[in-house]
Amino acid sequence: KDTAAPSLADGGERFSKSGFIFAAIGSAVGLGNMWKFPYITGKYGGAAFFLMFIICLLAVGLPVLMAELTIGRGGRGSVVASFSRLSKQKGWGWLGFLMILAPFLILSFYSVVAGWTMYYAVQSFTGNLFSDSDYSGKFGAFIGSWQPVWWQLLALVLTAVVILKGVSAGIEKFNKILIPGLVILLITLVIRALTLDGAGDGVSFFLNPDFSKLTPESALVALGHAFFSLSLGMGTMVTYGAYVDKRQSLGAGTLAIGLGDLLYAFLAGLIIFPTSFAFDIAPGQGPGLVFVALPAAFAAMPFGSLFGGLFFVLLAFAALTSTVGLLEVPVAFVRERFGWGRGLSVIVITLLLFLIGIPSAISVGGAVGGLQFGDKSFFDWMDFICSNILLPLGGLLITIFAGHVWKNAEDEAGLSSRWYRIWIFMVKYVAPILVVLVLLHSTGALDF
Ligand code: PHE
User: Fold this and answer.
1) Which of 66, 224, 245, 323 could form a disulfide with 254 if both were Cys (CB 3.0 to 4.6 A apart)?
2) CB under 6 Å to ligand 1: residues?
3) Adjacent-strand bridge partners of 376
4) Are 174 and 325 in contact (CB under 8 A)?
5) How many Å apart are CA 49 and CA 396, to the nearest integer?
6) CATH assignment of the domain containing 144
7) ipTM here
């Protein structure tokens, strides 16, 4: 029955050429680049880690990204439908279900952080954020209250509205409006950061590598982050691939998405490190960096509430262009599987997300903040299960599928024979081995 399931994209939904690139870059660029990347780069040694990230992104991330897009366009459906259609085996469809579950779970806590960014943007513009200088107290009081639940709901509703409108009037249009906005904000803030007194130390921390800081662990973290940052292993790029026109070059698209994501991470680093160093803030201090440390920096600069507000708007934009990519995955799946309309699918899934998201929203210091399962809060478990287990597992399935199971990947990929050989070698051998290492390391089975 699977193989006969109606194909989503044959229902007429299609990205335009540029729309696909905008949407995919929008998905890739997100909280990963602006919130996670800076503090892990800070923790794992700055420039040497950034260099490692670049290598992982180009050598492993891009081939896997290409594989996801190719599977999506070849299968013209969600991961489940594409896997079972292309392999003609139902079992692969079931494995693909992992990659429907992952974005659903990710969205349930990613939208919590997206909500924080919107709250912080408002607090910054109104100047409330800077009324006294106890930024960690303020952050603690906010995440300790019920307010994050409502801000999360706002993030989910905005995402749902975009997805309700469909592929070209929703996802494509939204990204085409937000991404240019993002670029303008980004450049404004880079200029502001680089002209601060003492910015130079931050730039050299970020760009002047000290190779003694490279460890096997930092290399694996860099690879894991390259996956997260390119939205891999989570069905998003497969689903977006299903809406890509047959005449579009997937190779060129992959390159544009990868370079776009990299450029964004580079510019985000040029904002965060110079700012942190100029105000004596340790960049490796963890997830609170942008919410606790940077407000102190904004408070100390002229027009700080304006620049702070713009910074959090930038973060919110980046987050929302990613949440739409996450929501489209389960929506595409239920439409395909149950034949529901887009409207019904979006409403049901958003409600479920809201319910599952509540424990995440109130477990970072909130009403159930003290409730730990083992050594982690609910929020941390969600992040851990998704980022460290489901995502590498998804990436592994993708490489096995494109490299060893599906026989016609070459035709769909449309690469020159030389590039095809390089690509398929990476997908068949290099990527799966490295991904298994990441998986073993992040589950603690492999310790350095
Ligand atoms: N790539 C996004 C980021 O860096 C996160 C994401 C992962 C979005 C998977 C969609 C799918 O924030």
Assistant:
1) 66
2) 27-28, 30-33, 103, 228-229, 231, 234, 236, 322, 325-326
3) 373
4) no
5) 23
6) 1.10.4160.10
7) 0.97
